[in-house]
């Protein structure tokens, strides 16, 4: 701010009056915004969110304390903010739980909905890129909790003007991001009996095992919430298919891009690159990156009339689950055979822990027969013919014993190889 020169006290006083209007709520006492989360600065919100929210983990039990981080991953730095936790089933309802501060110099507790400490806001107008707080789950917490966050970014300039050197009125620019960012979707532990689950290794716990590849479907009235997690620095994906082959499938991908995750529906046509579709059909999208692992979730309606390539979730499908590499938003072929369910399942059906395998029984039999024939019987047959002629020189059914053993092992090798060669064709139903 340019200092006023002598004789311009009136101009300086006018400036101070204007500053009171510009700063708006630099102290963070914004309890009047507790209900609708909309800042009272009198300025329209930006149409697209430019900030996101990450949390330490996405499951909780009543009484837990969970650390959350408000993180500006792109766009302008922010000066003001307001954070609340709500019941995900009733986001316009009263706040849920309370917060504990980590840095009281940057954040403060507010009383919203007559609950002390149920919201967090800023304490000053300094520029920020991160705010860290703890959220304390109440004993009577709902099944799903969602964070609502409003960010405010504002700045002002004070150009000098006038022949007398008086300070000109400030040029004020303000933008308030009043969008509700649903990137903190929590689910209570102990609800697996209400879900359709797919896990690898079977019965693994995604909360305790970093190598656990996990997919769950939870029905909620007319919609289904999907959650995926697993060890991947590229992408996680699952697909719903009418058969066990890739092609004409409804797929969903969580793609790691820089320090964010893009959640996109897609359509699989044969073994070609997936055709990414618009995310208009998805709601409540959330994600988290931690220690080489990825977690993402979203919600979609069970039926989507008129939406192309999206399947009706009331029908049974084979479920595919795959991971792979990604670079600059482009995905590459999955690194290993996808996990495929043994049979069709309805994701809106009865709760169950679904079994799946990366190798169907026929292909496992193919591999086992090839391994036995070319690593065992043929090798033993060659060793017998090379080193055991003197030892097995006695006649056996009209020939030397070593030759009979050698010939029997070679015949077994040929038979097993022929059977193993046919099995993939039986599995695929013909030539592929």
TrEMBL record:
TM stretches of this protein: 367-388, 408-427
Segments forming domain Cytochrome b561: 328-432
Domain Reelin: 15-184
One term of GO molecular function: oxidoreductase activity, acting on metal ions
Secretion signal span: 1-24
GO biological process, alphabetically ordered: intracellular iron ion homeostasis
Chief location category: membrane
Entry's Gene Ontology cellular component terms: membrane
Span of domain DOMON: 209-324
Gene3D superfamilies, per database record: Reeler domain
Coiled coil ranges: none
Subcellular location: Membrane
Membrane topology: Multi-pass membrane protein
Cofactor: heme b
Keywords from the UniProt entry: Electron transport, Glycoprotein, Iron, Membrane, Signal, Transmembrane, Transmembrane helix, Transport
Family classification: Belongs to the FRRS1 family.
Function: Ferric-chelate reductases reduce Fe(3+) to Fe(2+) before its transport from the endosome to the cytoplasm.
Name of the protein: Ferric-chelate reductase 1
């Amino acid at each position: 701010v340019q200092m006023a020169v002598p004789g311009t006290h009136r101009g300086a006083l006018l400036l101070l009056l204007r500053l009171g209007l510009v700063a708006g709520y630099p102290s963070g006492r914004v309890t009047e915004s507790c209900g609708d989360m909309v800042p009272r600065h009198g300025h329209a919100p930006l149409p697209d969110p430019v900030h996101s929210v990450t949390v330490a983990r996405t499951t909780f039990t009543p009484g837990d304390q969970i650390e959350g981080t408000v993180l500006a991953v792109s766009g302008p730095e922010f000066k003001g903010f307001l954070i609340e936790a709500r019941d995900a089933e009733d986001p316009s309802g009263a706040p849920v739980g309370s917060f504990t501060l980590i840095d009281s110099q940057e954040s403060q507790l507010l009383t919203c909905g007559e609950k002390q400490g149920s919201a967090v806001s800023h304490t000053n107008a300094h520029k920020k890129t991160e705010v860290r707080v703890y959220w304390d789950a109440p004993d009577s917490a709902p099944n799903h909790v969602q964070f609502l966050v409003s960010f405010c970014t504002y700045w002002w300039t004070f150009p000098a003007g006038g022949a007398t050197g008086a300070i000109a009125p400030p040029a004020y620019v303000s933008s308030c991001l009043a969008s509700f960012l649903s990137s903190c979707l929590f689910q209570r532990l102990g609800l697996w009996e209400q879900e359709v689950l797919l896990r690898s290794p079977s019965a693994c716990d995604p909360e305790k095992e970093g190598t656990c590849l996990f997919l769950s479907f939870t029905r909620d009235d007319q919609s289904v919430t999907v959650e995926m997690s697993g060890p991947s620095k590229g992408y996680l994906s699952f697909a719903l298919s009418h058969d066990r082959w890739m092609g004409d499938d409804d797929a969903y991908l969580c793609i790691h891009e820089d320090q964010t995750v893009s959640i996109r529906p897609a359509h699989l046509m044969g073994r070609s690159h997936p055709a990414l579709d618009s995310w208009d059909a998805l709601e409540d999208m959330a994600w988290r990156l931690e220690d080489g692992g990825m977690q993402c979730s979203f919600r979609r309606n069970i039926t989507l009339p008129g939406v192309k390539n999206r399947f009706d979730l009331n029908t049974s499908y084979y479920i595919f689950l795959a991971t792979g590499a990604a670079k600059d938003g482009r995905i590459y072929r999955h690194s290993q055979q996808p996990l495929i369910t043994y049979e069709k399942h309805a994701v809106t059906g009865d709760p169950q822990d679904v079994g799946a395998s990366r190798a169907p029984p026929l292909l496992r039999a193919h591999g086992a027969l090839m391994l036995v024939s070319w690593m065992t019987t043929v090798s033993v047959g060659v060793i017998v013919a090379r080193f055991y002629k003197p030892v097995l020189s006695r006649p056996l059914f009209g020939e030397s014993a070593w030759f009979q053993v050698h010939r029997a092992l070679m015949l077994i090798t040929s038979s097993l190889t022929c059977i193993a060669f046919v099995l993939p064709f039986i599995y695929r139903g013909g030539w592929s």
